[in-house]
Amino acid sequence: MSRRTSPVIPGFGLTLGYTLVYLSLLVLIPLGAMFVHAAQLTWDQFWAIISSPRVLAALKLSFGTAFLAAIINGVIGTLLAWVLVRYTFPGRKIIEAMIDLPFALPTAVAGIALTALYAPNGLIGQFATSLGFKIAYTPLGITLALTFVTLPFVVRTLQPVLADIPREVEEAAACLGAKPLQVARHVLLPALLPAWLTGFALAFARGVGEYGSVIFIAGNMPMKTEILPLLIMVQLDQYNYVGATAIGVLMLVVSFILLLLINLLQRRISRS
Amino acid sequence: MSLRRFALAALASSLIAGPVAAAQTLLNVSYDPTRELYTEFNAAFNKHWQAQGNEALTIQQSHGGSGKQARAVIDGLRADVVTLALAGDIDELYKLGKLIPENWQERLPDASTPYTSTIVFLVRKDNPKGLKDWDDLVKPGVEVITPNPKTSGGARWNFLAAWAYAQQKYGSEAEAKAFTEKLYKNVPVLDTGARGSTITFVNNGIGDVLLAWENEAFLALKEEGGENFEIVAPSLSILAEPPVSVVDQNVDKKGTRKVAEAYLNYLYSEEGQRIAAKHFYRPRNQAVAAEFAKQFPQLKLVTIDADFDGWKTAQPKFFNDGGVFDQIYQAQ
Question: What's the whole-model pTM score?
Answer without folding.
Answer: 0.82
